[in-house]
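Subject — a protein and its fold

Tokens — whole-number codes for backbone shape
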Amino acid sequence: MISGLYSAATAMDAAAMRHETSATNLANAHLPGFRRRVVSQTPFDVTMSDAQEKSEMSTLLGTTIGTVENAVKMDFSQGGFRETGGSFDVALSGDGFFVVEGPEEPLYTRNGQFVVSGGGELMTVDQLPVLGVNGPIVLPPDATGLVNVDNQGRFSANGIQFGQLETVRFPNRNVLTPVGASLFQKPNDVTPEASNDEVLQGRVELGNVDYMDELVNIMVASRQYEAAQRVLNSIDDSVEKHINT
């Protein structure tokens, strides 16, 4: 009966996490470069069985059935593109990332909706400098509105090149951790590779969120939470009756 309580409780936790994750995806679906969050889960008996195989005390441990939530992972699949016509809106066709100057270290993003500061520096909407292959990209004073970006990320105005976007890729993108909604951070021991992704000017990459899928996930998670809650209440009533008899 105690194992039943644990199963119901962990099922409620799992459903709540799935509900929260899908809600986060929906809330950021409009954000260029957003990568949807995905919750993976493993049956508790599988996790416990693996642990028992490594333990000399496995014969003393009972297997409790339930659900174990793993860490929320990122879906790095590419989103669709939206035409904007903006000179400083760019998108990557491929699996690479733009590089921006973070407060302490470089950060990585798929959000190419850039703006220009009063000093002519190319910035993210979060006011972080966008890095080029030779450092931050600074526009010439007469370049506003006359800027061209070719498919290799090279900026030019009036036929004169003045910067090139730095783009990188990670063989294993799962090492990246989110920093905010559309920025990512790499571990200290990981070095990115140069990317050859095609740069598309006048477009932004949309978040890779399917509205209908996330709405269905929220509905399913809500039903699962309610079902687990009913089981928990039923077991609780049974325990109380057993104690009182």
